[in-house]
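Consider this record:
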Amino acid sequence: MRYRCDIHEEAEADIIEAASWYDDQRIGLGDEFLTEVQSAIENATENPLRFPVRRRSPEVRRVMTSRFP
C-alpha cells in the first residue's frame, strides 16, 4: 500500500531554490539533489512508519536525504 505525500507550496519552492543553489556550486548537482529528494519521497510513501514522528497531530514524519544535508 502506498501512502500519500503532501508537499506544500513553500516546501516545493525551498526544494527548487536548493536545487538552483546546488547547480550554482556545480553544474548537474541540482539535478542530483532533485533525484535524491524524489527518492526520499518515494521511500516515505512506500513505508512511512520507518521514519520518526516529528509532530503527532496531524502526524508529520521526517525523511532525510542520505547525501544532501
Summary: Strands lie at 53-55, 60-61. Helices lie at 9-25, 29-46.
